[in-house]
Design goal:
The chain is of the alpha+beta class and 84 residues long. It has a domain at 16-71. The radius of gyration is 13 Å and the shape is globular. The strands form 2 sheets. A two-stranded antiparallel sheet has the order 1-2. It has a two-stranded antiparallel ribbon with strand order 3-4. The model has no long low-confidence stretch (mean pLDDT 92). The protein contains 1 helix and 4 strands; from the N terminus they run E-E-H-E-E.
Amino acid sequence: MVITLKDGDVTIALRPDLAPKHVEQIKKLVRQGAYDNVAFHRVIDGFMAQTGDVKFGNMKKGFSAEAVGTGGSDLPPPPGEFSQ
């Protein structure tokens, strides 16, 4: 999956071998444009950056600083997938 940022692209390797239902859900949402304009709502320098709140994180439609990071999508959540 490629995320296009203002400073360039970020490539993310998905793991369908470990979580096929979650990967399929992400791909479905990407195809729907659900992640377009979604903010990175939590960044810890040198450690991680978190994005993906398609309900409250869209900077052009429905952004909520108070709720971002707590939302989901309109799709039902996939079942838990656990690996060793």
